Amino acid sequence: METRTIIPLTRIHQPLKLELDLESDLVTDCRSSGTMFRGFELMLEGRDPRDAAYLTQRICGICSTAHGMVAALAVEDACKVEITRNAALMRNLIYGADVLQNHLRHFYVLALPDYITSPKTPPFEPQSSYDKRFTKAENDKLVESLWQAIETSRLAHQMLAIYGGKAPHQHGIVPGGTSMAPDADRSNRFRGLLKIVLEFVNEHLLPDVELLATKYNDYFKLGRGPGNFLSYGMFPQKGSLNPKYPAGAYLDGKLSDLDISLVSEDISHSWFNGPSVQEKPAEALALPDKQKPGGYTWLKAPRYDNQVMEMGPLGRMWLSGEYRNGTSAMDRLVTRTLEAKKVAQWMLEWLDELVPGQPTFTPFDIPDSGSGIGLTEAMRGSLGHWVKIENHKIAHYQIITPTAWLFSPKDKAGRRGAVDHSVVGTRVGDKENFSEVGRIVRSFDPCFSCSGHLIRPQGDIEEFRIC
After folding, report:
1. Residue 112: which residues within 8 A CB-CB, separation 6 or more?
2. Given pLDDT bands bounded at 50, 70 and 90, which one contains residue 56?
3. Cβ pair 250, 322 in contact under 8 A
4. What pLDDT sits at residue 459?
């Protein structure tokens, strides 16, 4: 057996390390680790609860709106605030624009370069020539789409800024609703940009993904996940009710309602110490300990009913019954692009439902004490914020991100997280670049900025590989 270390994994948001155990060309074990501690939860303690919707967005620039949304929901839950329907629609439009820019950038900028021959210029150099299957005409078409996707994703950010003030780290979603009211001028500008984005999705994104799936149809068998899915629900229609994507769990082949009390975090192999290896997020007391024996990552191991879960566009479409083809690397890419079209079409509906002149903010006071939970589906999957208020200030804050779920370390029972599970069993034909592993890992759209939890390097990594 040999162990190979991959660091950094290119085209991944922030630092990820993979340790692979191999028997010949077969991956027999995988240990992914997040190497950056950030401590956002600790930064929030003692602050005004309304600050959370702004500060938590700084966790990440690619999915900042998701954190702003969930932080606002958690504070509203603690303060017993019900937002207006107009505010819910406005939030969906702001958030939907961020979802669109993410999905476009993930496929074209982060995932597609694994499969095409890119222009021989930075930032595409150096690049591997391993396993490239497109004809020159097909490859040229995909490269042209890539350049157009960058511009189109910028238009999605421009949409976000119309109602959110700026992008990233928008100012539109605040506890109590939104900071801006709709009017005809903004709605018309938003609609015009949205139609351009939807046209690109229909004429480029969907055909490009179909071509990729045809040429690389063996990836429908590679990178299969654990088969358990979780969703917190996404795009509410009024307050926190009636989400477009339903909340629920798919566990051991059975669909069930979401029970948030079943969510816990295991710290057996995380660089955290606490009174128990199994934490409930509302009471989590674990403190950072980089020297902890057996620890190898800053990510905790979230579990639902003590089980490993996958999430994201594949999980959302699986739970809604719209897609049950498989759980592979290619299934993740396909469902993310299908979701982009679905979200764009929903946004056209929400624009029609906005009522100019109707309120988008509900005034409220911060109570002396209270607690709340904010839940939604972020671009990569289930995102939760837990807040506790004492003396009108944040006394305790916990965040469980999709990346923590997907890239979790082993738990006390030895169960691998979803990504490690999907990589084990892969046969590697390219030990120089580990292309197969890179394609599988990137199919999850990983964002280690969102692991949410200073790195002090110790020792040397004997064997480096850049994937």
Report:
1. 142, 146, 208, 212
2. very high
3. no
4. 41
pLDDT surpassing 90 at residue 237: no
Residue 463 has pLDDT above 60, yes or no: no
The Cα 209–Cα 335 span in angstroms is 10
Which segment of 54-63, 203-212, 226-235, 436-445 scores lowest on mean pLDDT?
A: 54-63
Q: How far is CA 172 from CA 53, 182, 226, 344, 418, in A?
A: 10, 11, 37, 19, 34
Tell me the pLDDT band of 13, cut-offs 50, 70 and 90: low
Whole-model pTM?
0.92
Cβ proximity of 314 and 444 under 8 Å: no
Spatial distance between the Cα atoms of 426 and 334, rounded to a whole number of angstroms? 20
Fold adopted by 2-465: Cytochrome-c3 Hydrogenase; chain B (1.10.645)
CB atoms within 10 A of CB 153: 21
Pairing of strands 2-6, 464-465: parallel
Which tokens is 455 given?
């790195």
Type of residue numbered 257: D
161 burial via Cβ count (<10 Å: 0-12, 13-18, 19+):
middle
Q: How many Å apart are CA 86 and CA 88, to the nearest integer?
A: 5
Q: 241: pLDDT confidence band, cut at 50, 70 and 90?
A: low
Residue 95 host element (H or E): helix 85-105
Rg (alpha carbons) of the chain, rounded to whole number: 22
Confidence grade of residue 451 (pLDDT, cut at 50, 70, 90) = very low
For residue 343, what pLDDT is reported?
A: 98
**Own/partner long-range contacts of 22-28 (Cβ < 8 Å, ≥24 apart):** 22/428, 25/427, 25/428, 25/429, 25/431, 26/425, 26/426, 26/427, 26/428, 27/423, 27/424, 27/425, 27/426, 27/427, 27/428, 27/437, 28/1, 28/424
How far CA 240 is from CA of 77, 142, 144, 220, 269, in Å, comes to 10, 40, 41, 35, 35
pLDDT of residue 461: 35
- Rounded CA separation 75/394 (Å): 10
- For residues 334 and 198, give the distance between their C-alpha atoms in angstroms, rounded to a whole number: 16
List, in order, residues 6 or more apart from 341 with CB less than 8 Å away.
Answer: 198, 201, 202, 205, 206
Rounded Cα distance between 290 and 273, Å, is 10
Give per-residue burial for 46-61: e unless 16+ CB within 10 Å, then b. Answer: eeebbbbbbbbbebbe
Q: Where are the domains of the chain?
A: 2-465
Residue 60 and residue 130 in contact, taking contact as beta carbons nearer than 8 Å: no
